[in-house]
Amino acid sequence: IQISNDTLKEHLKKTFGFSQFRGEQEAIIQNTLQGNNSFVLMPTGAGKSLCYQLPAIVMPGTAIVISPLIALMKNQVDQMIAFGVNAQFLNSSLTRSEMNRVKNEVLSGDVKLLYIAPESLNKQENLNFLQQANISFVAIDEAHCISEWGHDFRPEYRKIRAIIESVDEKLPIIALTATATPKVQLDIQKTLNLEDAKVFKSSFNRKNLYYEIRSKKDIDKQLIRYIKSHSGKAGIIYCLSRKRVEEIADLLHVNGIKALPYHAGLDPAIRMANQESFLNEEVEVMVATIAFGMGIDKPDVRFVIHYDAPKSLEGYYQETGRAGRDSLDGTCILFYTYDDILKLDKFNKDKAVSEKENAKLLLAEMVYYANLGVCRRKQLLNYFGEYMAENCGFCDNCLHPTPTFKAEREVVLVLQA
Ligand code: ADP
Ligand code: MG
Q1: 8 A C-beta contact, residue 367 and residue 414
Q2: For a substitution probing ligand 1, which of 26, 28, 44, 49 has the most ligand atoms within 8 Å of its CB?
Q3: Where does the Helicase ATP-binding domain lie (predicted)?
């Protein structure tokens, strides 16, 4: 359909309260309106949701948004409803009668955005329902879930393209992700049959994030001191294990810091409640495993701390990306010790050979990142295939230069272990 850029801007202002599009948002929206497929690669916090929310509002019919997590859907639906847009979701958290109500509302034409979990999409009854509905286009959020090379692989994502085609093969598709390693990108385009899609890729430089690596010596003291000196600010602390999450949440609690745990072992109701408390600012700190965060839109997270080393630079980049989504400064501190790398390497011991080799390479990248005296941002962007000519001036290595620690020996150790 034809909609002028001026009209789009009016909708942007009226519904979302924003006066300018960010980056390529407008071109991406126009591409969907014109009935073309799009592949959007933008870092976390860049504003990908708007690229399907706005066209959903202006196009007749209901846009389908495929989204991997219940929490993520709820977050976005709540937001859209607050903006006065009729959005609904279909997932396993609904009772049968709630599902029927949602479907009837969609069929009556009142719903602008319908969020669906990929496993719900697979059900025959839902397929029949979608075939009857008036669908404007399909958005596939967190599209990297389709790739085994990504960090959140969901097997159900592999079936998406076939399902969309059985609903209506002419529907425009927009796939979105913050994962931009060339391997994952290729995998997504191939599996979704999106080789023809227009690719919109923006820089992965998060200029407002400060990257820092610290030694793990006296980590608990360092942690408490940091949080206390940033009291009133929201932050996330990522730990490797559920047990550690519980321990650190307790530790902070007894030190008078308002913190709650989040991990997949918690009762879903408690997990949801803890997340809500964090989003509503009843607590300041979320202590979590990486189960927490994908797609969560809390704009004012001021720090992300890694208590343990992450499995890959990709994961590290995604997790730190949850800081500073409002464009104000965010601090990313990684507490590093080589022992963590060895521990992570041990977790892989039962994997297939090729998988194990891959995991080792990712760990080796992590070791280099933690030890090199080179601008951290340069290293991170390099990992995503971007080249930065100048040092950033906003990371620990730029502000407090230290000689590069020759990490070769450690890297070799990981690779040969
Ligand atoms: P992501 O790319 O990670 O999915 P989101 O879609 O969650 O990012 O958007 C991140 C934040 O940016 C949100 O708070 C959103 O409201 C805000 N945002 C998106 N587009 C604009 C815009 N054009 N102007 C101002 N803020 C925007
Ligand atoms: Mg998003």
Answers
A1: yes
A2: 49
A3: 29-198
